[in-house]
Amino acid sequence: MACKQAATSGRVNLSNLALENRLIGGKYRLLKSIGSGSFGEIYQGIDTQTGGDVAVKIEACEVKYPLLAYESKIYEAIGSHLGMPACYHYGSEKRFNVLVMELLGLSLEELFNLCKRKFSIKTVLMLGDQMLMRLECVHQHGFIHRDIKPDNFLMGLGRHCSKLYIIDFGLAKRYVHPKTHEHIPYRDDRNLTGTARYASVNAQRGVEQARRDDLESLSYCIMYFSLGKLPWQGLVAQNKQQKYEKIWEMKRSLCIDEAFKDKPMEFALFLKYARNLRFTDRPDYVYLRQLFRVLFRSLNHQYDHVFDWTPLQKEQRKKDRERERERVRQRESEMKINRRQRLEFGSRSAREPIGDGLKHKR
Ligand SMILES: Nc1ncnc2c1ncn2[C@@H]1O[C@H](COP(=O)(O)OP(=O)(O)O)[C@@H](O)[C@H]1O
Ligand SMILES: [Mg+2]
């Protein structure tokens, strides 16, 4: 069994490359590191021509299995759509490859932590709706993602702050031929690609992944958000291999109704639906979204894009603004004091003989 961490093993430390302030592709300046993954690092940067913010995904040239060029091709093939980050540049610098893309906000994993690792049903349903739309878009373009998990969904920034984005296409794969539209063949001798915690039962069993597996992973995300953790988290084993075996065993013998016993039955239905799909089946995304939307309405929720973290972030922004105002006040009073001192010094030195003043300075 292998996963992304293993596939990109021999992780290269980028910290000794002194990347801050570097100019990339002739116009993007790297500012600070904002994330790291199995591949390398993500930097926040600035487009020096427009002043716009960007994110720069960096992969060292010497990694065993480079993925960034492939990932940039996938972004290009899928193109510009709602919830797909814009990509501005891919290139190779001296010792690393870079993908410059739209700067996004926090990931669902980070927001989950911000909300003390519990999301309300309203938040879960609003997220589920957008996650389903993103999957449908990726699948429509002939790709499966193969690493669906909370870390790979990010909220937008500014006016896009209620929009969910899907990222990280390093493990994505074409499941239909672009011209003949023929589905890839069934196989069951594959290594696991993706993350064991969210992988489908079949993917862990070594079956070639298809649309159904992205959907099953999505339903584990929903389970994770609504229960606070997945039943197979925190299992102890002697090594990774044994841990994966234990996760798989627990996943496949899971009693779905029991797991969701205090939660809306739609969540259990969703997982059962994903598990019952056949290898080449096209998921009925509209049916699944409808399932969530009807539940949403029956619970009398408003589709107002107010997520559990919205008030927390508002509070944080208010604090930031207050802090900024305080800083400005301090700066202004310092400037006033400086001005007064200069004026006093000026009027004193005007009264004093010039030669004397110069002498003092020396
Ligand atoms: N465009 C972006 N804007 C802001 N943060 C990002 C962006 N892309 C990635 N990140 C952050 O970096 C992390 C790792 O990026 P990702 O592309 O998922 O790499 P990996 O392949 O290692 O998982 C993400 O989980 C996220 O926190
Ligand atoms: Mg990722």
UniProtKB/TrEMBL annotation:
Residues 28-296 form the Protein kinase domain. The keyword Transferase applies. The keyword Kinase applies. Pfam families: Pkinase. It comes from the Eukaryota. Residues 318-362 are annotated as: Disordered. Coiled coil: none annotated. Keywords: ATP-binding, Kinase, Nucleotide-binding, Serine/threonine-protein kinase, Transferase. Its EC number is 2.7.11.1. SUPFAM superfamilies: Protein kinase-like (PK-like) (SSF56112). PROSITE patterns: PROTEIN_KINASE_ATP, PROTEIN_KINASE_DOM, PROTEIN_KINASE_ST. GO terms for molecular function: ATP binding; protein serine/threonine kinase activity. ATP binds at residue 57. Belongs to the protein kinase superfamily. This is non-specific serine/threonine protein kinase.
